[in-house]
Amino acid sequence: MTTGPHAIRVVLPAHLKKLARVDGEVTVDVAGEATIGSVLDALEARFPALRGTMRDHARTKRRPFVRFFACEQDLSHEGFATPLPERVARGTEPFLVVGAMAGG
Amino acid sequence: MSGVRVLVGTKKGAFVLTSDGKRTSWDVSGPHFAGWEIYHVKGSPAEPRRIWASQTSGWFGQQIQRSDDGGKTWEPVGNEFAYDGVPGTHQWYDGTPHPWEFARVWHLEPSRTDPDTVYAGVEDAALFRSRDGGRTWNELSGLRGHGSGPHWQPGAGGMCLHTILLDPRDEKRIFVAISAAGTFRSDDAGATWKPINRGLKSEGIPDSEAEVGHCVHRIALHPSRPDTLFMQKHWDVMRSDDGGETWREVSGNLPTDFGFPIDVHAHEPETIYVVPIKSDSEHFPPDGKLRVYRSRSGGNEWEPLTNGLPQRDCYVNVLRDAMAVDALDPCGIYFGTTGGQVYASADAGDRWTPIVSHLPSVLSVEVQTLP
Question: The whole model's pTM is what?
Fold first, then answer.
């Protein structure tokens, strides 16, 4: 496990990029341990319009149709305190916020 | 020259349609917030450049957008709608208690006098208010807490507070309507509430004349006569002349009294409009003919308005918030369909023309009359 600070690369889904008014990948700084929750905290602090879009306002529950992927793993069902993979913490790989597939 | 700005919410974005006072040539901008459901877009009567939009998504939740330049640019404002205290439960479809859960904002009602004050009607049914330009929202929890809240039950479209009327004489008097609970009134700026459903009869509930439980689809009033309310209920068109204390049916000669929107002419308080829909399961006009019905007598006697509207093979619906009137003379009437058409009449409904014909399914239509 690497200790902070970390520069975490994040890929947002198109609708959230638009809300945050960013193009492409974003990088957020995480001071302590790089966990799912600390990355979401950093994203919401930098882009307040994203509050409530990935998890509830109480920051306790992931929105059901939002998924979190990293290093080809689905972290969606892990707790927010779950450390991110080393390669994400080091900035080698991005943390992916994904809108769940829907349709038919 | 004066003009109008028609604000259209659709299943896949918002559109702003503008015209001069002739209302024959239109500029269309949008989609704004493409890909999101826009339940409602409404301008502030106190500051017409300020417009509010409810932007919602099954994936990413609720956003409230605010424009301060007439819809050219938008800023997301506060989107936290937290029920006051322990939310408690309402009835679920199977009759079991179900916790109150915020789903989305159905309707935004800006104050008539203060540009920073706006009300939000939400699903699960509750009323919120912001007094700081949308930055923060607080529930007016006396509505859910007045006593009947635990017995409210959702309609097929969810348990939504979809209509908010502010009395122009006194903004402390507020009317709201909830599917499927009914109509409620506050006389103290939302602190306390009472159900106002006496006279409603609904065959779909165990006690057809119960105090609450009615599926009210929309209510409307004319600013000059705020004690007179008109209602399109699930079935039945109703009228009250005492601020909702008592209601009587005015469906009269309508071909069907099921429908969603109801609205009042801007200059004639006894002229009202509905769009009859075949039935609660067949959400399209009878006989495939899209007809607005107008009553110039405040109900009971209705005339079909068909000039310019499709009179064959038309099977669209017109949703509860998808009709509006402007304040020009003659009064303009507008409505949007689930087929993506927005129709306008610049002569109080005598003749109709489509402004746009191929939008996503229309959820709401509002209009601003511009100086």
Answer: 0.96
